[in-house]
Amino acid sequence: MRLLKRTVPAFQEAQPPANRQRKKPFPKRQIITYAALIVVGLVLVLPMIWMISASLKPESEVLETPPNFFPSQLRLDNYANAWSRIAPYFWNSIKLAAINISFLLLFASLAAYAFARIEFRGKNVAFALLLATAMLPGIVYLIPQYIIFRDIGWIDTYYPLWVPRVLTPVFGTFLLRQAFKGIPKELEEAAVLDGCSLFSTYWRIMLPQVKPALAAVAVLTFMESWNDLFGPLIFLNSNELQTMPVALALFHGEYFTQTSLLMAAATLTVIPPLALFLLTQKYFIQGTVMSGMKG
After folding, report:
1. Residue 221, pLDDT above cutoff 90
2. CATH number at residue 245
3. Which range marks the domain in which residue 51 is found?
4. Quick one: which of 122, 128, 117 has its CA closest to 207?
5. What is the mean pLDDT of the segment spanning 52-59?
6. Which end of the chain has the least Cβ crowding within 10 Å, N or C?
7. Could you tell me what percent of the chain has a pLDDT over 70?
8. Which of 60, 75, 90 corresponds to the end of one domain?
9. pLDDT of 90-101, one tens digit each?
10. What residues does 257 pair with on adjacent strands?
């Protein structure tokens, strides 16, 4: 019996645990998926790589056949020359984007808070009409809009480029409304019991709760303003008021195109939206997820 008792633990220790999980082999389907994603990612990044490479080349090497991604000599002076030409347009775009972001966040958050938290007659109808305006393409009301702006003296000013956008923030209102609807009502009721007014509750209590959604709306508004080419071409006549998309067209002439300088200017144009997205990426993702799943 003693011998049996001694051998039983040794036998049990020799057995592998029953609940130990075996390592699963890496499935072939995942390998194919990752390989396809890598190929697609390279295809999407390849134009940007070529743009940066062309911006560092002499003009004679930009359109070589077959193309070479590695320049024979780095021409950093292309960026200095490009910046000297686009600097005023760059700051015009920054100023216009800042105005759009500031006023749109204010008006969109006010409208979204009203649609999400305040009960009034015709609220759903008004919200439906607001969403319906997004179904009309801008080209439909371009001529009436231009006539109105001409009659009130807004042509060749920045007003047509930000006033209509901030007074009709359809997507921003929708996104922030969903974010406000996801906040517990008890938080708002506690603020009212503490003596907060309606605006104070919105400004001090509710608005800080939707910072991720505000960041998402800010990034999208910046991109829309920064990439707007049609508006400046229609409403701006003075060259000193033009923005970055119009400035890029200055490198394209009738008989000659400075491709290396154009690629350097395009690279400089990509930096602000890329930097803004990297700085607000965490809040941007949180805002889109929160606004899309709650409410």
Report:
1. yes
2. 1.10.3720.10
3. 19-75
4. 117
5. 86
6. N
7. 86
8. 75
9. 999 999 999 999
10. 252
Say which residue the tokens 């105005």 belong to.
Answer: 99
Q: Which two tokens stand for residue 175?
A: 């996104």
- Which residues lie closer than 8 Å to 145 by C-beta, 6 or more apart? 160, 164
Same domain, 71 and 86: no
Residue 57: pLDDT band by 50, 70, 90 thresholds? confident
- CA distance linking residue 56 with residue 75, whole number of Å: 5
- pLDDT tens digits along 106-151: 999 999 999 998 888 888 899 999 888 888 887 888 888 999 999 9
Could you tell me the pLDDT band of residue 288, with boundaries at 50, 70 and 90? low
- Separation between Cα atoms, residue 64 and residue 67, nearest integer Å: 5
The answer as to whether 8 is a domain residue is no
Give the Å distances, CA to CA, from 71 to 50, 88, 117, 261, 276.
11, 29, 59, 15, 29
Q: Are 287 and 217 in contact (CB under 8 A)?
A: yes
Nearest Cα to Cα of residue 181 among 130, 124, 115: 115
* Structural domains of the chain, count: 2
**Under 8 Å CB-to-CB from 92, ≥6 apart: which residues?**
241, 242, 243, 244
Q: Could you give the dihedral angle defined by the CA atoms of residues 146, 151, 152 and 158, in that order, rounded to the nearest 10 degrees?
A: 30
Are 198 and 242 in the same domain? yes
For the residues 52-65, what does the mean pLDDT come to? Answer: 82
Instruction: Look up the pTM and report it.
Output: 0.80
